[in-house]
Amino acid sequence: MKFKNKGRKIYKTKEKNYYGKSGAGKAFSVGLTILLIGGLGFIGYSVAEPLVNYTKKKGDKDAVSSTSAVATSESDSATTPAEAATGITPPQGINFEGYKGASLKPTDLISAEALELAIDRLPTGQGIEYLAVPLKVSGGAVYYSSEVFYALPARALPQTLSTEQIITAIENAGYKPAAIVSIFEDNLLPVTDGSCGYRTYISDQQWIDNDVSSGGKPWASPYSELAVSYNADIVSELSSAGFQKIICSDLVFPRFRQSDLDILDPELSTPARSMKMTAAANMLNDRILQNGSSMFIEVSAADIIMENDDILQPMLLNVNNVVLDVNIDELSSGVHTADTVYDFSGTVSEKAEKAIGMVESDLSEFNVIIRMSGDSCSMMDFVEARDTLVKKGYESFILG
């Protein structure tokens, strides 16, 4: 949603001149002026701090001194030689310590032994600090022993690992635990409870993303309070268990066709729908912060190119940290918009550079972590792409 800056209205008034005051009157006037200035100074000092605190996003650290803030601003405005040569200018966020991590695959969670082997295969000497595990994946399957009610029928495996087992394995290997949670690309929840999905506007029937014969599936909707509450319970359970970072992915609407929009809530055809998505994200953030963890929002580079990025509303979001998922498999097959097909060819690094160059302006107000992903690539492919991007100023990353 775009907000227009209407600016300030300036009202002009005619000046009045006063003559003929006595000496005593002038002295009284001077004294009154001094008292007024002192009073305004006190009020300004009292109000300034609440205003500053009001404008902070939740989870942000306290601001540094004004001298440091000016220095930071001047540093951010400078363009490095690498940026000038490539045309890529990394978003410069505030109050962000950086993030260096790797992620595992859902199949690594089939057993404690599989998890330990996957951790042992991670490359060493890459500065990896956090290890993220996909605990609720696109489609809705849950890969840990959640106690949340609607997660029970969504368990992917008959026997799943507990959060304690997963965190212990990660910490024993010297990493900090993070969790990846898919939010609304959930095709299982609306099957369990139809009120959690999209409903047709007039007939109140469950909407699916394609014909049944073509494998059409329902999606969880941010318009459903139950769907939002379910995901909030998931992230609350994980953050309270000890996962320090919760990466929330798939905060997206389905790629509706016009024929879909014709039968759904009319608001889904307007920019106003962004407010539902960002409100859901802010609720998740609140639950995560309550447990001392922090939230990242993951967005796909392909989704941004296709303008399926309603979540990127910095004026509405209480979250500053965005993981840009550069999925090489997704890019390699071409990104299709309504009137253009974008081709991505070359090396993994070249594909990543092109994708980032196309979407960086959409992320200018966020702290950005680059995630290199895709089943067709090796970990060394990701490391090489990461090294290329670090030279261009992107120092926060997730490998895998």
Give me the secondary-structure topology.
Layout: H1 23-55, H2 66-77, H3 81-86, E1 100-103, H4 112-120, E2 130-136, H5 163-172, E3 176-182, H6 189-192, H7 225-241, E4 245-249, H8 258-261, H9 273-290, E5 294-300, H10 301-305, E6 321-327, H11 328-332, E7 335-336, E8 341-342, H12 348-359, E9 367-373, H13 379-391, E10 397-399
Parallel strand pairs: 1-2, 1-10, 2-3, 3-4, 4-5, 5-6, 6-9, 9-10
Antiparallel strand pairs: 7-8
Report what the structure shows.
- This protein has 400 residues and is an alpha/beta fold.
- Helix content is 37%, strand content 13%.
- The chain contains 13 helices and 10 strands.
- The strands form 2 sheets. Strands 1-2-3-4-5-6-9-10 form an 8-stranded parallel β-barrel, surrounded by 5 helices. Strands 7-8 form a two-stranded antiparallel sheet.
- Helix 4 links the parallel strand 1 (100-103) and strand 2.
- Helix 7 (225-241) packs parallel to helix 9 and helix 12 packs across helix 13.
- It is globular, with a radius of gyration of 26 Å.
- The two termini are 31 Å apart.
